[in-house]
Every structure is written in C-alpha cells, then in structure tokens.
Amino acid sequence: MWGGTGFPVTETSLPYIHGTTGLFDLPMDLTAATTSGTFYIEFSLTDSASGYNKHIWYRVTRWTTGVPAVKPTDDEISLYPNPASNQVNIVFNADANVKTVAIYNLIGKMESIYKVAGNSAGINIENLPKGIYFVRLMNAQNNVVATRKFTKE
User: Fold this and answer.
1) Residues 57 and 1 in one domain
2) Prior bond of 129 cis (ω within 30°)
3) What is the C-alpha R_g of the chain?
4) Same domain for 88 and 55?
5) Is residue 72 domain-resident?
6) What pTM, to 2 d.p., does this model score?
7) For every one of its 153 residues, what pLDDT tens digit does the chain have, with 9 covering 90 and above?
8) How far apart are CA 77 and CA 88, in angstroms?
9) CA-to-CA distance for 114 and 120, rounded, in angstroms?
10) Is the dihedral angle over the CA atoms 116, 120, 125, 131 positive or is it negative?
11) Are residues 41 and 83 in the same domain?
12) Under the phi-then-psi rule, with left for phi > 0, alpha for psi from -120 to 50, and beta for the rest, what region is 118?
C-alpha cells in the first residue's frame, strides 16, 4: 500500500459541473510506494446541482526497477550554454579533483584536451565542426569523474 497507513485518502477538487469538458489533473507522489503490484484509484464525479454521480476506476501498476534513487550531491557538474557556439563552460565541485577535461566527438575520437585548476573551465570550441560532443572530466589519476554531452551549433 502506498505510504502504509492513512488510506483511503479523499481529495476534493474544484466543483464538477456535469456535461462540461476540461483537463483533469491528479498529481501523485509515488516515492513512498513500498510495494510493487497493481493498485486501483477510484474517482467520484459528483454534481450536486444536477444530482449527477459517476465512479471511475483507474488501474496503476508500480514495479521496482532495482535502480536506487539518485540524490543530488555537492559534486554535480554544470555545463553551459548547451547548445554552444563559441565556448562551453564547466563548473564542478573542487573536491572532485578534476585535473583534465577532454572533448570527444560522437564516434569517440578525442578532439582536444585541457589541463584545469580550481572548480571551473571555459573551453573555446570555435574550431569544432557543428555536432554532438562529450566532455570527459578526469582526476589526477586519469580516472573519469564525469561525462557530459553538449551540442556545437
């Protein structure tokens, strides 16, 4: 059961007027779901003015993916602008110990490599042909810290 206790939950929307059309929005937060399987959600449409009452059932299936939730960390890497035309900027956490930034084309050929210090780098890409590229950030031991993709326009 989603969330464990406290079910069923009743939410009230704006008044329903029978015969009208419009969008129906139901935000659901399934992060508390602890069980995989099929669950049913019942909607009751009631128009007190006309006496109209209808029940609609939806089936929701939740399966675990085996992929743990990824939480943002302080070593997130920002690459901007994307797409870029003249320069691409990369900002990273100094604790990531990034020492080298390399740019690779789509087939994996290294186009350029740069030594960096601190927690950012501005890389001139004017001479690269238009296309999709990957930026690989490596630490002092040449281990890949992160890879990001950008488009040169």
Assistant:
1) yes
2) no
3) 25
4) no
5) no
6) 0.51
7) 344 444 556 666 666 677 777 666 666 666 666 666 776 677 777 777 888 877 777 667 766 655 444 333 445 788 999 999 999 999 988 878 889 999 999 888 999 999 998 889 999 999 999 999 999 998 888 888 888 999 999
8) 13
9) 12
10) positive
11) no
12) left
- If you search the block for the tokens 């989603």, which residue do you land on? 2
End-to-end CA distance of the chain: 49
Which structural domain range is residue 10 located in? 1-67
Burial environment of residue 105 by CB neighbours within 10 A (0 to 12, 13 to 18, 19 or more): middle
Is 16 among the domain residues?
Answer: yes
Residue whose entry in the numeric block shows the structure tokens 């326009």? 153
- The two structure tokens encoding residue 97: 């110990």
Rounded to whole angstroms, how far apart are CA atoms 127 and 86? 8
As a whole number of angstroms, the distance between CA 52 and CA 16 comes to 10
Task: Return the ∠ at Cα 34 (arms to 30 and 36), rounded to 5°.
Answer: 85
Provide DSSP, 11-45: ---SPP-TT-----------TT----EEEEEEEEE
Residues 59 and 92 in one domain: no
Total domains present in the chain = 2
